Amino acid sequence: IYWLYNQAFFFVKICFFNIFFIYLQAKTQVMKKFVFTGLICLLSISSIFSQNLGWEMDEEKSYQIPVGQCSWEEIQQSDFFYLVRENSRNVVLHADATVELAEVLDSKRPTKYEIEAYFGAWDEESLKQLPFFYAFVITMETKYQQPIDFKFIGCNREYDCGGYEEPETLPYFKIYQITEDNQRTIVGKILEKPESSFEEDVLKIIKH
């Protein structure tokens, strides 16, 4: 699948340069507008590829790690998931905080929230916090019908995160507020681990 991904990305780049050459040769404004639209579409596709998932071998851990955005299902299928599963045995959510957070989220509608969860599959603290974070967001969605959008973003030891910005530390949780007109604003961060718990820290950030 990763070979196909690389081949597709290469194909997009070749198409871009060919269309750009045609644009330079176009003699009419109508043709230039048509070709320009094609260039914009290819640039959009290229940006999607540039922030896609790749896997690379971590030499110290001797297993493949994700670099870029990935899903929980992909994490579950990884060689390091057994470490995440071991840490999940300690997951306990604070009921009072989740109930209050659900009420606050409901009161702020249609404003939504999104959390980008940066982690290193080679990093011990990241593997500790992943199951706590996932349990938190899934509980808010399934038990309280208050979904918080989220992304898992894997990073290597050089803090390369597959096209995403370099995090301040790992793990790193960046919380966005998204208004009805789709304006995104960073409203808070959790560095390495919550001060109390994810539900309590996110509640504190969103309330203010």
SSE string, helix = H, strand = E?
HHEEHHHEHEEEH
Mean pLDDT: 85
Oligomer: single chain
| Distance from first to last alpha carbon | 44 Å
Label the overall shape: globular
Tell me the number of strands: 6
Strand order of the largest sheet: 1-2-4-3-5-6
Computed CA radius of gyration, to the nearest angstrom? 21 Å
Strand content is 15-25%
Percentage of residues in helical conformation:
40-55%
Ranges where pLDDT stays below 50 over 5 or more residues in a row are 1-10, 42-51
Instruction: Please count the helical segments.
Output: 7
Description:
The N and C termini lie far apart (44 Å). The protein has 208 residues and is an alpha+beta fold. It is globular. It has helices at 2-25, 29-50, 72-76, 81-88, 95-107, 124-142, 198-207, and strands at 54-58, 63-70, 112-119, 149-154, 172-178, 184-191. The chain contains 7 helices and 6 strands; from the N terminus they run ααββαααβαβββα. It has a 6-stranded mixed beta sheet. Helix 1 packs antiparallel against helix 2, helix 4 crosses helix 6 and helix 5 packs parallel to helix 7 (198-207). A hairpin with a 4-residue loop joins strand 1 (54-58) and strand 2 (63-70).
Briefly, what is this?
The protein has 208 residues and is α+β, with helices and mostly antiparallel strands. Helices cover 49% and strands 20% of the residues. Mean pLDDT is 85; it is low at 1-10 and 42-51.
